[in-house]
Amino acid sequence: MELTRRDALIALGGLGLPLTAWLEDSEPTATELTSEDIETLLALSETLYPSDVTVNSDFIETFVAGQHQLDSDHTSGIVSALTGVRRASSRQTGRRPTELDPSERGDLLRSMGAARAYPDPDGTSVQQIRYYVINNLLYALYTTPKGGELVGNPNPPGYPGGTTAYQAVSTDE
User: Basic and acidic residues compositional bias: what residue ranges (predicted)?
Assistant: First the structure.
């Protein structure tokens, strides 16, 4: 399953960003993220997402640009958290996170304590990594209908599935 720009727009609807903002300007708004930041987010999504999910850069760029429209400080938090991930990766492995394989990136996040950290945008570096990177990427996945189906929720918040989506009788019994 591939997540695309369209999926990112659906996830942004769950955040409250009106899609009419995207209709007026079809290109994502410029953010403070560099190409290295986008590559790092893509690499981390490979680690955090189930193996049958493929993410392209349009998904990440569109989701982050939409968040930037809602709150530019959030983008600054993402940049700061990614800097923390890159520093830890360099210190522990001598390589950038994009050069590690997915299991090594998972080991890196666990060794930092990010897997157990309480997400706090104003907390320690590890808490910010959990909030701005890990939780952000997971939110982007699971608030799309494609990602929601992975956990049994094909109609995530903000997705206009209608009453039939939540009133349907399950035939799995």
Answer: 96-105
Q: Please report, in angstroms and rounded to a whole number, the separation of the first and last CA atoms in the chain.
A: 27
71-113 pLDDT per residue, tens: 778 888 999 999 999 999 999 999 999 999 999 999 999 999 9
- For residue range 35-57, what is the model confidence (pLDDT) as tens digits? 999 999 999 999 998 888 888 88
Q: By C-alpha distance, which of 22, 97, 101, 5 is closest to 56?
A: 5
Cβ proximity of 99 and 108 under 8 Å: no
The CA-based angle 137-143-144, given to 5 degrees, is 100
Any residues with CB less than 8 A from the CB of 166 and at least 6 apart, and which?
A: 155
Residue in this structure with the two tokens 């049994």, named with its chain if needed: 152
pTM above 0.90?
no
